[in-house]
Specification:
The structure is a single chain. The protein is an alpha+beta fold and 252 residues long. It has 2 domains: 93 residues, 2-Layer Sandwich (Alpha-Beta Plaits), CATH 3.30.70.580; 132 residues, 2-Layer Sandwich (Alpha-Beta Plaits), CATH 3.30.70. Helix content is 20%, strand content 27%. Strands 2, 5, 6, 7, 8, 9, 10 and 12 form an 8-stranded mixed β-sheet that branches. Strands 1-3 form a two-stranded antiparallel ribbon. Strands 4-11 form a two-stranded antiparallel ribbon.
């Protein structure tokens, strides 16, 4: 996505890279994503930038809002919370329009058993085994602000909130919950994993296409010359779907 936006920016007369609020794996979707770039062509209005970007972006990427702000705003460092949702379809028969946006699981899951992990996952933990080799080079201690599980069968949805996440961290957390639900690991294994006492996880991360960066919240910042065209009706996949809450835990 970043590469496509940078190409579009260059086509309308700007040069340089964009800075996004989050790094995402290939195949991960974003309902809400914030990025910024340095504007040296100050005579260009927000509306002109908005129209120019969307005219040069591929059909699967859209800009909904453009505004000018002060130099102290940074898409990544001004972000205070990110919400990810992971969508799983508990059946083989998936309608083609939604198939690219979720993961399928054929085996029956014990959804009630998943409740055991809700409180454990929330809080500050050592997530070194929940990331890639590259991710372990960063600070591996992260804090999960909330963790929730929703259902609208055959759809199962995991929601995780926090300020920052390691590479593939959310996908490994979801995979751990699924493996626990299937009885492949026990509660002591989960506790050791979250303490950083393990060297690896004996299962892969869930596939990328089920993961969505659902929402992003930033510090308050001044917006000047803002122009936007947000859809009047929810058009993003699953956006208008009413989900039933199974369990949710929040950090104190």
């Amino acid at each position: 996505m970043q590469g496509e936006i940078e190409k579009a920016i260059e086509k309308i007369g700007f040069k340089g890279r964009i800075y996004g609020c989050s790094r995402t794996d290939g195949g991960v979707h974003a309902r809400n994503y914030i990025s910024h770039f340095k504007d040296t062509v100050l005579k260009r209005s927000a509306k002109e930038i908005f129209k120019g970007l969307n005219a040069n972006l591929p059909d699967d990427i859209r800009v909904y809002s453009v505004s000018k702000t002060s130099d102290d705003f940074h898409s990544r460092y001004s972000t205070i919370k990110k919400t990810y949702r992971y969508f799983i379809y508990l059946s083989d028969s998936v309608s083609p329009p939604i198939e690219p946006y979720l993961s399928k699981i054929r085996n029956k899951l014990d959804i009630s058993r998943m409740k055991d992990l809700t409180e454990l996952i929330v809080g500050k933990h050592n997530f070194k085994v929940f990331t890639t080799k590259e991710g372990r080079e960063a600070q591996v201690e992260r804090e999960v602000d909330s963790f929730a599980i929703y259902e609208r069968l055959p759809l199962l949805v995991f929601e995780i909130e926090g300020k920052s996440f390691l590479h593939r961290m959310v996908r490994f957390i979801v995979s751990m919950v699924i493996n626990y639900s299937a009885g492949k690991i026990d509660i002591d294994f989960v506790k050791d994993a979250l303490k950083g006492n393990l060297d690896y996880l004996p299962f892969p991360a869930v596939e990328a296409k089920g993961l969505h960066l659902w929402d992003v919240k930033t510090e308050d910042f001044t917006k000047e010359d803002e122009y936007n065209e947000f859809p009047e009706i929810p058009l993003y996949p699953f956006e208008s779907l009413k989900l039933n809450l199974i369990t949710k835990a929040k950090a104190n």
